[in-house]
Structures are given as C-alpha cells and as structure tokens.
Design brief:
This protein has about 180 residues and is of the alpha/beta class. It contains 2 helices and 8 strands. The strands form 2 sheets. A 6-stranded mixed β-sheet has the order 2-5-4-3-6-7. A two-stranded parallel sheet has the order 1-8.
Length: about 180
C-alpha cells in the first residue's frame, strides 16, 4: 500500500480581482489565469466568504469569491485551466455586484488530488472591498502586497505547527510517539 500526499488549499498570495487594496491604495490585477484547484469557505469580519485557488507559474494564488464568481466557478472541474477576468459591476436591488468572465480550457488539465481545506476559520489576507477603477493587466509578482505575503507565510507556519502538535498528541495518546 502506498501513500500519496493530499494537497491543501493554501495560497502564497490572496487577492480581490478588479478591486483596490485599501491598505496600499494599489490596484489588484483584473485578470488571473491558472489551473483551478478548488475553493474553501473562510470566516472573516463580513461573515463567510469563499476563496478560489489557482495553480499559477508563480505559485498558488487565492482569489476572493463574489456571488458572480462563486456561481461561475462552481461548474469548473478541479485541474482545469481557467482565466478569470473582472468585467466591472452591474447594478442590483442590493447595490452594485462585481461581475467576472470565466473561461476554461477543458483540453488543458492537470491531475489534482482531493484537496484538504485548511482550517475554516483562517483569516486569510488580501480581501479589501473597493471600486473597479483598476488598471492592472495580469497577476505578477509586482502586483502583490508584501505585508499580505508575509502574513500568509506566518499563518501557514502557524497552521503547520498546530497540525504537528495535534498529530503528536494523537500519537502519544496511542503510545506510538516518544
């Protein structure tokens, strides 16, 4: 019997496509492209939100979900190449709604093991409500928020330490660890 590693839904950077980072005033990119890995639900100060994960050539990218984006990505299979483009806003009775164009290339896929969501109460960085007057072209290392990257790395290290402690406690309870 062989073991295979289960990938987790984590990202080096989490962004809100087509919006402005309120901390820096810098525009998030309007477009992201990569292999869709899946999504997970997280708790934040606004309630529950989804983060969608893309495997890009620069690492895993988290994209904060919106009603429109969540609906469109729900029909995309894990491992499928996607391109997500912010298309602006549309008026609704509850206020303006961010809209997105989601394209998929079903002929360009990768094998994705079942992803294990990180803790549901993680507070990922990067979500800032803003306007859609951005000019960014694509996701690139120049478009990242350095504080968000550091916070994400710290959060990942804390999760890893917590996981290790839980495993050690479980193993000690069964007499299998020192």
């Amino acid at each position: 019997m062989g073991f295979t590693e289960v990938s987790s839904l984590d990202a080096e950077v989490t962004i809100a496509l087509g919006k402005i980072n309120k901390k820096t005033g810098k525009a998030y990119p309007k477009q992201a492209e990569g292999y869709y890995l899946g999504s997970r639900t997280v708790e934040n100060k606004r309630g529950e939100s989804k983060i969608h994960f893309l495997k890009t050539d620069k690492g895993n990218l988290g994209v904060w979900g919106t009603t429109d984006l969540d609906r469109k990505l729900s029909s995309v299979g894990a491992g499928t190449m996607v391109r997500i483009t912010s298309t602006g806003t549309k008026p609704t009775p509850n206020g303006d709604m961010y809209t997105y164009k989601v394209e998929q290339d079903k002929t360009n896929t990768i094998e994705v093991e079942a992803a294990a969501p990180a803790y549901a109460n993680d507070e990922d960085t990067g979500y800032d409500e803003g306007t859609d007057d951005t000019e960014s072209e694509d996701y690139s290392s120049d478009d990242t928020d350095e504080d968000a990257v550091q916070a994400a790395a710290l959060a990942a290290a804390e999760r890893a330490a917590a996981n290790k402690a839980k495993v050690e406690a479980l193993l000690k309870g069964k007499g299998k660890a020192k």
